[in-house]
Each structure stands twice: as structure tokens, then as C-alpha cells.
Amino acid sequence: MHIDYKTKGVCSTWIHFDLDEEQRIHNVHFDRGCDGNLKAISKLVDGQPASQVAQILEGNICGSRNTSCADQFSIALKEALESAAAS
Questions:
Q1: List of E strands, 7-83
Q2: N or C, fewer C-beta in 10 Å, the chain?
Q3: Residue stretches of the chain with pLDDT short of 50
Q4: Distance between CA atoms of residues 27 and 23, nearest Å
């Protein structure tokens, strides 16, 4: 399943990723944001279980913001998992 998630309150504007039939993450790409850090996150999470990554990244903040690109990714993952479960 391919996901395109519109972020809220962060520098990155979109997060794109795939979930395979085992709910593992692949092909993560962030539009805009801190290029090096987001490329690193993308590499680190490739092939990992979406639920585990969502739990780890949830609540991470950036500066004075109450969210971050990583936190937004956790929200996107949780929404994708809920959608997959409902299908």
C-alpha cells in the first residue's frame, strides 16, 4: 500500500512511503525539511515494522514546536495501519 501524508506544523510538507503485506515500511521520502536527517530516518526505518517505528517516533518534538517530522511520520504510520486494519 502506498501512502502520501500531508504534514502539519513542520518544515516537511509531505511524507511518502509504502507498507508491505507484513506492515513493514519501505521507500520513505520526505518533501522538504532537514534533508540529511530525514534521509537518515528513511534509511533507518526501511524494512522495519510500522507499529514499532510509530511507537519510537511518537511525541518527538522539534525546537519550540509541539511536533516534528518524525512525530508526523508516526501519525502517518498509525493512520495507515488503522486504514489497513479496516480494509
A1: 14-19, 25-31
A2: C
A3: none
A4: 13
Alpha carbon distance 52, 8 (integer Å) = 22
Give CA–CA dist 87/81, Å, rounded: 10
Among all chains, which residue has been given the C-alpha cell 493512520? 79
pTM, two decimals, is: 0.97
Only one residue has cell 509531505, namely 14
Q: Which helix (H) or strand (E) holds 3?
A: strand 2-6
Cell of 48: 522495519
Category of 82 on φ-ψ map: left (φ > 0), alpha (ψ -120 to 50) or beta: alpha
Are the CB atoms for 76 and 2 separated by under 8 Å? Answer: no
Q: What is the pLDDT of residue 87?
A: 84
